[in-house]
Amino acid sequence: MPDLPASTAPMLQLHQVRKSYGANEALKGVSFDVAPGEFLALLGPNGAGKSTLFQLLTGLFNADGGEVRVDGHNMQHTPVQALGRIGVVFQQMTLDLDLSVEANLRFHARLHGIADRESTSRIEDVLQRIGLIAQQHAKVRTLSGGNRRKVELARALLHRPAVLLMDEATVGLDPASRRQLLDEVLALRDQGVAILWASHLVDEAEAADRVVVLHRGKVLTSGSPAEVVAHTGASSLASAFLQLTSGTPAPANA
Ligand SMILES: Nc1ncnc2c1ncn2[C@@H]1O[C@H](COP(=O)(O)OP(=O)(O)OP(=O)(O)O)[C@@H](O)[C@H]1O
Q1: CB 3.0–4.6 Å: which of 29, 36, 87, 147 could bond 192 by disulfide?
Q2: pLDDT tens-digit profile of 88-118?
């Protein structure tokens, strides 16, 4: 992959990424990138390869081939630098329910080597922004599901990552909490964060700058929601997604 000047370089770059489980090719040469301040929705039905991709992006295992770069750092050759530039909200909650919101965030800050004085102000800032400052000292167990997810988002942002990975982050939330979380993340574009939002829920991709449709380990199409609709000749993103991933044309009124 060519080196680009820092000002124009995408924050996340995937080039021909491949991963197999035995004979099962989960990722068959996946390429796309995410620019600073861009919200990219990775849409795929079950089994598309989204979880496998996230496992590669979070350093759980290496790709069999291809290249991943985060803020210019090659994930395989310089994983510490690459992973240090990533913030992630996993599909499964990973907070300690019996610790306070602040203690959960402090723990993460220390893991990233942020001094306590600095992390105190960052924790207050981020909790203010997401509207949870009043819950700073509450045990996570007392929070609603939606607020727990927001704490996870706050935690993912504490070390000021270049790339934010959201893996099916709205699973289990009610519609209002889903919308709130999506809006919080969309607002991060103004700060130049590159966002990769993986989901199988098409409505969450409507507001994306770009959509990548992943199916059976391959990128089927990418573009703005309007471009994806236009490519397929469907009348909505939902219908385009269905058409692409089921291999059948959508009915005219879908
Ligand atoms: N540990 C594993 N061992 C063997 N095959 C696996 C493993 N993990 C995933 N797969 C296979 O790889 C393919 C992609 O799965 P993956 O979980 O990455 O997709 P996904 O888009 O995240 O789907 P889901 O939303 O259902 O988790 C599937 O065919 C799956 O059966």
Answers
A1: 36
A2: 999 888 999 999 999 999 999 999 999 999 9
